[in-house]
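New to this. Look over this protein:
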Amino acid sequence: MLTISQLAAYAGVTVRAVRHYHRVGLLPEPERDRSGYRSYDADAVVRLIRIRTLADAGVPLARVQELLDAGPEDFADGVRTIDTRLRTEIRRLQATRKRLARLAAGEHLALPRSVVGYLDRLRGLDVEERYIEMEREAWIMIAAQVPHLIDFVIAKKHEQLDDPDMLKLYSFFRGALDWPVDDPRIGEVADIVERLMIRAARAGEVGETAAVGFDEQFVDLLDSTMVQSSPAAARIVSILEERGWRGWTCIERVPADRLDIDLPPP
């Protein structure tokens, strides 16, 4: 016969845990002997090991009691249910670990891999980190809106970075957020953006952003974020509107048939 300390040691738990299992009714409490001590047998060791195993697996104690008292078939069904739940939890934790690894690497949790690669390419162009952070926030929102299309959209952005005008445009994004509204470079940026808009319009890409699932309210949100980023950004949009271009995320030509103008010189 075993003392409570010996029972706990054989089952790999603490004496405190044994007493707790007594209180909640999981482990029957034996009668005391003439000396006032409780004695435990092998059945108690086996039951306590089963309790510990189920509890360690995350089974609520109320469910532990149910499983301990179940017949072989019901017990097996219960264990399979617990196993399924554990597998689901393992997958969730593995996904969480991957996201934490991305966070530790300095990238935002909500950024798809394709966007991370695009932002890294911008860093390779020496684009100011403040501007990259602004783009990052926009891409997080875009990826949430059209997760099934984000890789396609990013592929288009990579194609655009092969355009000399686009590369020149990004070369301005080093301190541009601090430009005053009368900075002469603002006009040059507006010229570059207009050339890009004209090419997009002639390629039939004007307004195509709306076709990938952005509603007007979301487009307005993205546009307002860009306009409010700096006085220079607001001035560029104003210049483009004066030249007959509306919008930023979803570009429109007003009127739509004014595409026969000559491209401004590069």
About this structure: The radius of gyration is 33 Å. DSSP finds 13 helices and two strands in the chain. Strands lie at 245-246, 252-253. The longest strand covers residues 245-246.
